[in-house]
Amino acid sequence: MTRFSPRTAPLRRAGGLAATALLLAAGPLTVAAAAPARAADPVFTLGGPAETALHPYAEGGGAPKRSTAGITVTNPADEGYEGGFTLTFDLTGVAGIADVTFDPGPGVECATKGTRSAVCTGDTLAPGLSTVTGLLLGAAKGSEQGASGTIRVTGEARGATTTPHAAPLTPFTPFTTRVTVGGPDLVMRKLPFDHEPTPGQKQQAPITFANRGSRDADGVVLTLRYSRGLDIPQRYSNCAYTTDETWTTARCSVEGAFEAGATYTLAAPLTLEATTRAYRDLFVYGIQEAGTVPRAFSAARSERGSGAVLRAVPLTKALAARGVDLEPGDNEQEAEFRTANTADFVAYGDEASGAAGATVAVRLGFHNDGPAWIGRIRSGGSVAAVDFTVPQGATVTSAPKGCRGVTAEGAYREDRKTPAPRYVCPAPTTVRDGGGLDLSFGLRIDKALIGAAGRVTVRGPGLREAGLPFDPKPGNNTARVVLNGQSGGGPSPSPAPPAKGGPGAGSGKTPSAAPGTSGTGAPSTTGRGGGSLASTGSPAALTASVTAIAALTTGLALFAAARRRRKA
After folding, report:
1. Whether residue 247 is found in the same domain as residue 285
2. How far apart are CA 494 and CA 509, in angstroms?
3. Closest by alpha carbon to 498, among 454, 528, 468, 477?
4. Residues 87 and 104 sit within 8 Å (Cβ to Cβ)
5. Which residue among 67, 161, 238, 278 sits deepest, i.e. has the most Cβ atoms within 10 Å of its Cβ?
6. Which residues of 293-307 are buried (b: 16+ CB within 10 A; e: fewer)?
7. Could you give the count of Cα atoms lying within 13 Å of 337 in the half-sphere of its Cβ?
């Protein structure tokens, strides 16, 4: 701490006045230097599919089958753009190969200029990625199988900083897409699973797919994605596996020529198992031609299997190209499973002590004792919520991000700026077995009440959802946060869970929290897990401190009186 001496006060004051004079003298220059430069116009980027396959032209007549390619614009700004824009399509590369029409988005108008070009105009662009128009593509009459060409898209926008008539034009980053007549169409067959298994149940998964396109596929990539409650015990050497909190993904490269018109199945069926932690799970299985899997997939960190090679064998021989159906939407299937299982969500609270005016940190939340993991991976909604009623005599000074204040009755609260008497904190979309939700609140003790208790409840995610349908033990869904509880006498809250993983939601580990301090800088004490509280925070210690201060005050008064008598 820097010491302040009265002798240095004039020097410091003089130094401050001199610095102020210098700042005032340099004021105009400083203001000019600090003036922000005019923000540059955003750089818009055009995008879309790298390549689109077209159904061959139907010589026998009938309505042509069209493919769609969405043209997108990325606006990197946080706000929408309203300066007006123009997109120009160069169609010379697909003349005689594809017929092009447009399906423009809201507020966009498109017009063709013969068969060589087209223009789309609009006034606004939303922030981020948005689809401006869809290209409706059909094979041109007389086009041949395998014929290919490109469409180049350019754009420009008026600057947003001046009036539209005077603004310079800002070019978009251009984009080129390739169009090819014909191609394979890999179609995944839906499997007849038992969708209500029991934990430990195993089912065969004879993956079967067909090529209904107009040409052979040169190798395929089989993608298997299954959520945490499922498992496929086989680990093939031609499959790359990645695992995260929710999913395991296997991408298996299968070599060979997969003929148009033929159907294929795995040489040996997979085994899909509902594990002991299964509850609500998904299994997604899809097929793509090799070389068309997005680069981000192959770049993902993965582990190669050490088992046999996964192979696909013909189920039927190719007869002829039939049922042309180049639709990417049928390359994938998914199965949803509802396993009869349970998960025990256990709430925990905390203890803390401090004098009036002190701020303390308390930790609360819940942990999942399993055996099931719980996830809403289809809807993306929260699986549960922690409902915290603040102890009497305390005010919340800090709450975790995502927690919302409600009224004491649990109703919606318009005022979001002032502290609330009650908080609801949503759990994430998935909670692993052994995971949970760990929260830290800052509480200011406005009035030091002995044993003031707040309530912690883990319940359904809605404001009026009291229970958890998967939890067979509702008795441990509540805990308490106690302030200034009597050491060794009063009841204690449920203990915090042991550290089992990384910090944060789903880990099962309680994050560390710094101790609070009083408004005057005096430290406050915090108890953890229902253990004994520090003696400095007990009522007896507070009484002793008050007594000591009174004795010291009395002694000083007697000393002063004696000194006056000696001078007299």
Report:
1. yes
2. 15
3. 528
4. no
5. 278
6. eeeeeeeeebeebee
7. 31
Mean pLDDT of the 389-416 span: 94
Considering the domain architecture, whether residues 280 and 384 belong to the same structural domain is answered as no
| pLDDT (mean) for 336-360 | 97
- Give percent of the chain above pLDDT 90: 59
Tell me which residue of 131, 46, 127, 130 sits closest to 80, measured CA to CA. Answer: 127
Confidence of residue 346 (pLDDT cuts 50, 70, 90): very high
Residue 349 has pLDDT above 90, yes or no: yes
Q: Is 531 exposed, middle or buried (0-12, 13-18, 19+ CB in 10 A)?
A: exposed
Q: Flag whether 16 is in a domain.
A: no
CB-based contacts of 163, cutoff 8 Å, min separation 6: none
On whether residue 301 sits in a domain, the answer given is yes
Tell me the pLDDT tens digit for each residue of 160-217.
Answer: 443 444 456 788 999 999 999 998 999 999 999 999 999 999 999 999 999 998 889 9
Domain count, the chain: 3
**CB-based contact 53:331 (threshold 8 Å):** no
Same domain, 411 and 446: yes
Based on the domain organization, do 208 and 260 belong to the same domain? Answer: yes
Q: Which two tokens stand for residue 295?
A: 């680069």
Domain range for residue 110? Answer: 45-181
Chain position carrying tokens 């086989």: 234
* Residues 458, 478: Cα–Cα separation, whole Å: 7
CATH of the domain at 116: 2.60.40.1530
- Grouping H, G, I as helix, E, B as strand and the rest as coil, residue 25 is helix
Structure confidence by residue, pLDDT tens digits, 124-170: 999 999 999 999 999 998 999 899 999 999 999 876 443 444 456 78
* d(C-alpha 46, C-alpha 198), whole Å: 49
Name the CA radius of gyration of the chain, rounded: 35
pLDDT digits (tens, 9 = 90+) for 487-517: 543 344 555 554 443 333 443 333 333 333 3
**318 within a domain of the structure (yes/no):** yes
In a shared domain, residues 193 and 292: yes
User: Which residue did the predictor score with more confidence, 298 or 32?
Assistant: 298
Examine residue 6 and state whether it is found in any structural domain, yes or no: no
Whether residues 399 and 306 share a domain: the answer is no
More confident residue, 305 or 386: 386
For residue range 259-276, what is the model confidence (pLDDT) as tens digits? 999 999 999 999 999 999
Identify the CA nearest to 144 among candidates 69, 56, 263.
56
SS3 string, 96-129, reads CCEEEEEEECCCEEEEEECCCEEEEEECCECCEE
User: What is the spatial distance between Cα 151 and Cα 177, in angstroms, rounded to a whole number?
Assistant: 5
CB 432 within 8 Å of CB 350: no
Q: What is the DSSP letter of 92?
A: G
Angstrom CA distances, 317 to 107, 314, 541, stand at 50, 7, 89
354 and 319 in a common domain: no
pLDDT digits (tens, 9 = 90+) for 92-105: 999 999 999 999 99
Are residues 109 and 52 in contact, defined by beta-carbon separation less than 8 angstroms?
A: no
